[in-house]
Amino acid sequence: MSLDKILSISGKPGLYQIVTQTRTGAVVESLIDKKRITVGAHSNISILSEIAIYTLTEEVPLRDVLKKVMEKEGGKPTTISHKDGKDTLEEFFFEVLPDYDEDRVYPSDIKKVVQWYNLLQKNNLLDALEGSKEDEDTSEEE
User: Fold this and answer.
1) Is 134's pLDDT higher than 90?
2) Predicted TM-score of the model (pTM)
3) Cα–Cα dist 49/24, whole Å
4) DSSP symbol at 101
5) Stretch (H or E) spanning 6
6) Cα 34 to Cα 125: distance, rounded to the nearest angstrom
7) Strand, helix or coil at 20?
8) Are 89 and 111 in contact (CB under 8 A)?
9) SS (H, E, C) 107-127
């Protein structure tokens, strides 16, 4: 599974996995409690593969940021919680992405990245970070 099938829905906690497309939206399954819901086209949905984090020089795709968190944590859950204080979150994120733009990346954004990483790790979906790029490379070779 790639990050193209995992999304965040504004106003709803956690991450969701696309189960199937419908005429008016999609059926998605929560990675937190496995409950399925239908989301319409009017919902504010963000696909993880399309999210990027601002640095001082460029925008880094979320996939690369999550890979750096995975390398730092050795593939295990993060040593901090998304509920930790602002200073703890910023210190952790500075270790992961030293040149992130502190003016445009808010503590709430860091909380989401930490929470999303832990959800992906808990659901054994961290391999999605590797798979997407490799899929693109093999399709170009054909």
Assistant:
1) no
2) 0.86
3) 22
4) -
5) strand 6-9
6) 14
7) strand
8) yes
9) HHHHHHHHHHHHHHHHCCCCH
Question: Is 10 in contact with 43 (CB distance < 8 Å)?
Answer: yes
Confidence label for 137 from pLDDT (cuts 50, 70 and 90) = very low
Distance separating alpha carbons of residues 119 and 16, to the nearest angstrom: 10
- Detail the DSSP E strand segments found in 16-76: 16-22, 25-30, 36-40, 45-47, 52-54, 59-61
Which residue is listed with tokens 């991450």? 15
Amino acid letter for position 51: I
Under 8 Å CB-to-CB from 102, ≥6 apart: which residues?
90
- Burial track 44-82 (b if 16+ CB lie within 10 A, e otherwise): ebeebbebebbbeeeebbbbebbbbbbeebeeeebebeb
